[in-house]
Specification:
- It is a single chain.
- This protein is α+β, with helices and mostly antiparallel strands.
- The protein folds into two domains: about 40 residues; about 45 residues, SH3 type barrels.
- The protein contains two helices and five strands; from the N terminus they run H-H-E-E-E-E-E.
- Strands 4-3-2-1-5 form a five-stranded antiparallel beta sheet, with no helix packed on it.
- It starts with 13 loop residues before the first helix and ends in an 11-residue tail after the last strand.
């Protein structure tokens, strides 16, 4: 005879149904918890720290600071309130800028970087 008997486990076998960890719910927890820990330390925590640092920098803008907002570089001439600044972008040309639109704050006296030409 060319065909041998196949010995397979039945679907109702308790050892195969429960698996090694006792069920799929526990397996999911074992896989999901380390993934969440890695996400927290690699993504969420650094983003929170960066946002906190940005908020602190925006709160500490003073008169005389140089700022960059969407390509426009200017000098802060007046702090209007907690949300707005008055910025001089050219001699005698002043505009109002919302703090949240500021992309970079340069310290007083920090020179503008020269082109690498």
């Amino acid at each position: 005879m060319f065909i041998t008997n196949a010995y397979a486990q039945s679907a109702t076998d308790p050892a195969s149904a429960s698996g090694v960890f006792g069920g799929s719910g526990f397996e999911m927890i074992i896989l999901f918890v380390p993934l969440m820990v890695v996400w927290y330390f690699l993504l969420i925590r650094p983003q929170r720290a960066q946002a906190k640092k940005r908020d602190e920098v925006l709160k500490n803008i003073r008169r005389g600071d140089q700022i960059v907002t969407s390509g426009i570089v200017g000098k802060v001439t007046k702090v209007v309130d907690d949300k707005e600044l008055e910025v001089e972008i050219a001699e005698g040309v002043r505009i109002r800028v919302v703090r949240s639109a500021i992309s970079e704050v340069r310290v007083k006296g920090e020179p503008v970087k020269a082109d690498a030409a």
